[in-house]
Structure formats: structure tokens, C-alpha cells
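Quick start: read one record
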Amino acid sequence: MKKPTDAGSASPASLGFRMPAEWERHEATWIGWPHNSSDWPGKLTPIHWVYAEIVRKLAASEIVRVLVNSAAHEARARRYMARADADLSKIEFFRFKTNRGWTRDSGPMFITRKAPSETAVIKFQFNAWAKYNDWDKDQRIPQLAAHRLGCTLFEAKLGNRSIVLEGGSIDVNGRGTLITTEECLLDANVQVRNPGLTGRDLEQVFKEFLGAANVLWLGHGIAGDDTHGHVDDLCRFVGHQTVVLCTESNPQDENYRALEENRERLQGMRLEDGTRLEVVMLPMPAPLYFDGRRLPASYANFYIANEFVLVPTFNDPNDRTAIGVLSELFTSRRVVGIHAVDLVWGLGTLHCLTQQQPAAV
């Protein structure tokens, strides 16, 4: 295990680092192999097959780095991948114990710089969405990854205070603009990540550690999301000047008002260079319930890989429409659907499970 470079006291942005957009070239995708049955009560067995299909698609164009708890856990994952015909030569296993497999939120977040060319890891604190009490293993993953890769490790702080942040709560265009929600990061009563911190405080953190000085604040996320407003179920950058935003056509649906309010906010927003943001509407699937609970089914939880865009599908007429919208936006990538009706029972889908590691510039 390599020792990470000492980051010192300088902020990443002052050293030339930034968080690249997801569509920029990847060295690898990180994903945690499922093992916690409480994430998918009664459905963990089929989830392994969904993961195997995700890994098969990803390994066709980039390295896949898979977190496993043990040798036995790795062997089980290998069996599923082999039967799914995944290219095992493109898959690397990291025996880092986890509480859950939501790698977007608890895994390493990467930043890069051009001169000198370097990829580093940002360590935000993780506290299981300020909702669950089992997160001690998950919060160690960024540090373990930095050690294994020999990367510089920056701990995100405001003064002496460590900052809690999940990867699914933000999205960036790679040029200095970040989008997030007030519901997730600024609510003072529900699932409070950073008590007492203001929007301006968090904007300073985004500027110093992610190179994002321009922050766009949306309001509320979608119904059923137990993260309390993650933006990756709602609105995503698909280009430096373009976002897709979920829209609900049924005025009686509980998502309708929140999505309309977010659309109105975006109309007045500007990018880091002052230009107007282009907004493309992405439909929502029909409400999906399991065991009496509404699930956060959303096409916005897609993942952009080197040669593919993986889109969750829900046996819904809007599956084809959503794939069509994204195909027109990602003309150099193949946009493919991944069946996610079982997956979303875990209250997340493709983007929640994955974390990109950008290629060195």
C-alpha cells in the first residue's frame, strides 16, 4: 500500500486542482459490490445480477474498481461477473470493508490538475446521510483509496471544521459551476449534515476544494428520496452549458410543484462565465411503489462512462423517451438502459452506485 502525498495546508484550487465533469475521460469507475441485505430487503439476490450487468457494460470501455469486504466476497462477485460475461481483465478488486455499496456518496471523490499532471482524492466526512448509524467503515474509503493509489489526499474543511458531503448531492460542469439543492444541504431540521453552516460557507468549500466558484441552488428533490434532496435524482449537467431537469406532467403528482419551482429557478441562472444555462426537460416515470413506499425512480440517475451512458429503466412508457432525450445529447456515446425496478428498492440506482476516477490530464 502506497503512502499518500502530504497535501499540506494549501487548498486544492490554489494548487490548480478542479473536479472534472463526469463526461471527461475516466481512468476507472469505482463500485461497491452489494452485501448489506437491509439495503434491498428480500431482493438482494437479483441485485447481484443487476450489478454484474452494470460491471459488464463499464468494463467494455474502462477499468472497473470493485470494493469487496473479503476474499470470499470477491470470489462471489467474480462468479456473478464471469457468468454475465464481464471482461475480468478490466476489473480490479479492492478489499476495503464497507457498510453499504453506495459508492457515489461514500467513495473517493477525485480532482485533477494539468501542471504538474496529478489526480488527487478529496475526503469529505460521511455520516450515512445524517440518517443511519452504521457508517464507520464507509467513511474510511476515500483515505484507503488514496493510500492504495498513492494519491494526494485533501481533507475538506472550513477552518478547523470537517465538512460532511455526499457525491450525489452535487454535480459539476468541470469549468467552475456546481449545482445542488437547498433541501439537502441547507435544511436546519431534517438530516442536517453540517449544523450551523450557511450556503455561503458551503460555497467557500466548493470553491476551495472542487474549484467551483459558481454555485446554483435548486430547491427540493424528488419524492421517495431518503437522502433528502440529492440533486442526482433531479438535475444533471450533460454539457458545459446544458443540464437535464426532471419534469412531471401530472399536476396531481407530489413531484409536480417542486420540479416546476426548480425549472423556474433555472431560467434565471447563469454559468461561471455569465452565459445563460440551457435546460432540457427529462420525463419522470410513473410513480413506482414497493411495500407501500414510493421509490425515487428517476431517469436523472444515469451514469456517464467513457463510451456509454447507462440509464435506469422502469418498465415504463417513458423509458424510451428518456433514452431518446439523452441519446440526442450524448451523440458520441451509446445510451443504454439498465433495468432498475429491483435496484430502486434500495432507494438509489446507477449514479448512486458508481464514482468516476478521471484520467490524468
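Confidence is low (pLDDT under 50) at residues 1-5.
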